[in-house]
Design goal:
This protein has about 425 residues and is of the alpha+beta class. The longest helix has 29 residues, at about 340-370. The protein has three domains: about 1-85 and about 110-185 and about 285-355, FAD/NAD(P)-binding domain, CATH 3.50.50.60; about 190-285, D-Amino Acid Oxidase, Chain A, domain 2 (2-Layer Sandwich); about 370-415, no CATH class. A hairpin with a 5-residue loop joins strand 5 and strand 6. The strands form four sheets. Strands 5, 6, 13, 14, 15, 16, 17 and 18 form an eight-stranded mixed β-sheet that branches. A six-stranded mixed β-sheet has the order 8-2-1-12-20-19. It starts with 14 loop residues before the first strand and ends with a helix. Helix 8 packs antiparallel against helix 9, helix 10 (about 370-385) crosses helix 11 and helix 11 packs antiparallel against helix 12. The chain is built from 13 helices and 20 strands. Helices cover about 35% and strands about 20% of the residues. The chain has helices at about 20-30, 60-65, 70-80, 120-130, 175-180, 240-245, 250-260, 315-335, 340-370, 370-385, 385-395, 400-405, 410-415; strands at about 15-20, 40, 55, 80-85, 85-90, 95-100, 115, 135-140, 145-150, 150-155, 160-165, 165-170, 190-200, 210-215, 225-230, 235-240, 275, 280-285, 295, 300. It binds flavin-adenine dinucleotide. Flavin-adenine dinucleotide binds near residues 20, 22, 42, 308 and 319.
Length: about 425
């Protein structure tokens, strides 16, 4: 059998990671120094193209700081990016609130958030893998099939068969690992579609590069975003629930163009703007969907595991957090050599512990944002109530604050206090 030939010897590993996005790279980098034989299998060749809003929240920075080595300092010193110090919400009634990410600031403190083109950020993370000889990178290899057999899991690409003790599906929203090992049909209501372009000469940006979420009635519970980016550009676009779009994806570009040309709040800011890229759309899998994120010889991470915040659409920090959790769980499984569904269940438990309360809160926020009237009320509250404005900021910065704020009773206070 091909598995045992010399030619295939290079393709036997402890851990197979499908996908080298933020989730896959974070997992690999957290295990890199431990000596496991890791294969990272990626369909594209880096630097690869990625459609995103490019906002890196405090969650991203927190996980990055815990990755062994110089990743965070290198990010701060060497990556082309824009520091962002806060967030501006604009309600459907056009009332706005500016919420700084930090309540107090120290001198020389790094920014609490950044906007960094995903092509650059993902390439930066990916290039860190090259420092480790126990991580073998297979670029340009699209996974087409995954099967489990007694003793191992096999991942097939057009060129190779990779054998591992366990596979981590970090292969994005249309995950092949999920399709073969955890086949579930997901309702449209758990997906959002986002479209974005890069524009120059957009006016009215906040002097400290606040990211802007503008809740237009026609997009609710989605929003239009304006994120100041590098090279004098802004990343602007919107997210909309998939079931509200149906099959007419091509209309998204028309909606974007229409908002930029005609929306009374947005059009004046784009009067002299020029589109400097294609406008491109992609799907976001929301954390409202509950699935088993582990099973016999596999775990799912990031978008493959439906970990995008249902209200903000933020997914990079959560993807990286799942990579960090996966690394700590798998280390134990390598000790016991138990990759059964039962043995890997700890991963599900840890993911739920980390995200379930936050996703519940954000689902409620998403539902509130579905009604212009209720969301106007929330933004009005946030203008007067520190607890509510802190929540809006904490969504993008600090999971500990989120936990504190979302204790039972928070929702009632949100609307009625
Ligand atoms: C329009 C839009 C705007 C967004 N804006 C933001 C934002 O501003 N901030 C934020 O935090 N989040 C944002 N998100 C969400 C964010 O992009 C994702 O949550 C994040 O990329 C998830 O990381 P990941 O590593 O799980 O998956 P990905 O980044 O998608 O990486 C998956 C990797 O797997 C590879 N792959 C896929 N299939 C295969 C295969 N069959 N074989 C081998 N490799 C494969 C892909 O090439 C890719 O490199 C946005 C999403 C969209 C669509």
């Amino acid at each position: 059998m091909a598995f045992y030939t010399d030619a295939m010897a290079n393709y036997e590993f402890d851990l197979l990671i499908a996908g080298a996005g933020p989730a896959g790279c974070t997992l690999a980098l957290n295990l890199a120094g431990k000596g496991y034989r890791i294969a990272i299998i990626e369909k594209d060749i880096f630097p690869r193209h990625k459609i995103c809003g490019d906002a890196l929240s405090g969650k991203v920075l927190n996980v990055m700081q815990r990755i062994p080595g110089d990743v965070y300092n290198d990010f701060l010193q060497n990556l082309n990016k824009i520091p962002s110090w806060g967030i501006r919400f604009i309600a459907p009634n056009q009332h706005e609130i500016d919420v700084p990410f930090l309540l107090t600031r120290e001198e020389d403190q790094p920014a609490p958030g950044y906007v960094c083109k995903r092509n650059d950020f993902d390439h930066f993370m990916f290039s860190k893998l090259r420092d480790f000889s126990n991580i073998k990178i297979f670029e340009g290899e699209r996974l087409t099939e995954v099967v489990t057999q007694p003793g191992h899991v096999i991942a097939k690409t057009g060129n190779h068969e990779f054998h591992g003790k366990v596979i981590a599906g970090a292969d994005g929203v249309h995950s092949t690992v999920r399709k073969f090992l955890q086949n579930t049909k997901v309702d449209h209501k758990h997906f959002c579609i986002g479209i974005r372009g890069y524009y120059e000469n957009v006016s009215g940006l906040h002097p400290e590069n606040y990211i802007e979420l503008i809740f237009l009635k026609r997009l609710l519970p989605g929003y239009f975003w304006i994120f100041p980016s590098t090279e004098g550009l802004v990343n602007a676009g919107f997210g909309m629930m998939q079931h509200r779009i149906g099959k007419r994806r091509e209309n998204l570009t028309h909606i974007l163009d229409d908002i930029i040309a005609n929306d009374p709040l947005i059009a004046p800011r784009f009067t002299h703007a020029k589109l400097k890229s294609k406008t491109e759309a992609h799907t976001l899998p929301l954390g409202t969907y509950r699935l088993n994120r582990s099973g016999h010889r596999f775990i799912l991470l990031g978008d493959a595991a439906f970990l995008v915040d249902p209200f903000s659409g933020e997914g990079i920090g959560n993807a990286m957090a799942s990579g960090e959790i996966a690394a700590s769980v798998l280390e134990q499984n390598f000790k016991t050599n138990d990759f059964s569904a039962e043995g890997l269940k700890t991963y599900d438990t840890r993911i739920l512990r980390r995200f379930s309360q936050e996703f519940k809160t954000m689902s409620i926020m998403q539902r509130l944002a579905g009604s212009a009237r209720l969301f106007n009320l929330v933004v009005n509250k946030a203008r007067k109530n520190k607890e509510v404005s802190e929540l809006l900021s904490a969504m993008f910065t600090n999971e500990d604050v989120m936990k504190k704020l979302t204790r039972p009773g928070f929702y009632a206070r949100l609307l009625f206090k």
